[in-house]
Design brief:
It is built from six helices and seven strands; from the N terminus they run ββαββααβαβαβα. It is α/β, with parallel strands linked by helices. The chain has a seven-stranded mixed beta sheet, with helices on both faces. Bound molecules: guanosine-5'-triphosphate and magnesium ion.
């Protein structure tokens, strides 16, 4: 049966790895720099305005938010990285949560795919490159979403596409989807990828 996007709720905002839910369903994880557009992307995919909180002050709360999508999938909003002004103790919380999420065997094999968000206007930053290196060596299935593409004109879009496609840390077989949460560009393509990775029907 096709997925019912009216049946979506926040299961938990986990501040500790032991709070991560254990349901035997795929987890689509959204990773990226603070402010790159993770929460907006989740809202856009789910056709909701404000299910995932879009931040005006980036990196405020450090939690892993699990959205139960019709009991068939979790959408997992990971805490953003690369927040320069983060205090040392916040950095610790971030590491404990993110490492716990990526390495805990009880659910790490349910993570598919990781959706790695990168700002289409900037391309991969140093932080993004560290994350790409990690994804390449950890072997998680992943794809790249280039966010905020509504802010590019046609020439910038072509340049950005080339930059992403020729980036040495983005293998040729990894899909790169240009996305606008504002306009909906890329939404069908991304849902098709999520369906292919998780087996849900859309
Ligand atoms: P953190 O939770 O702090 O890590 O940020 P986030 O990655 O969840 O980003 P969020 O979705 O909160 O968006 C950050 C800012 O970018 C907000 O002001 C959004 O309105 C804006 N934004 C997100 N996606 C888009 C987009 O596709 N187009 C445009 N123009 N703006 C966007
Ligand atoms: Mg967010």
């Amino acid at each position: 049966m096709a997925i019912n996007l009216n049946n979506v709720k926040l299961r938990i905002s986990a501040g500790l790895p032991r709070q991560f839910p254990n349901d035997p369903i795929p987890q689509v994880a959204f990773s990226g720099r603070s402010n790159v557009g993770k929460s907006s992307l989740i809202n856009s995919l789910l056709g909701r305005k404000s299910l995932a909180r879009v931040s005006s002050a980036p990196g405020k709360t450090i939690t892993v938010n699990f959205y139960d999508v019709d009991a068939k999938l979790f959408f997992v909003d990971l805490p953003g990285y690369g927040f320069a002004k983060r205090r040392a103790e916040d950095q610790q919380v971030w590491s404990r949560l993110t490492d716990g999420y990526c390495t805990d065997n009880t659910h790490a094999d349910r993570i598919r795919p990781v959706i790695q968000l990168i700002d289409s206007r900037i391309g991969p930053t140093q932080d993004d490159e560290m994350m790409l290196e990690y994804l390449n060596q950890a072997g998680f299935p992943y794809l790249v979403v280039a966010t905020k593409c509504d802010k590019l004109n046609a020439t910038e879009r072509r340049q950005s596409e080339e930059l992403f496609r020729n980036h040495p840390l983005i293998p040729k077989d990894i899909p790169v989807i240009f996305y606008s949460s504002l306009k909906g560009d890329g939404k069908l393509e991304l849902w098709k990828q999520i369906a292919a990775y998780t087996g849900v029907k859309i």
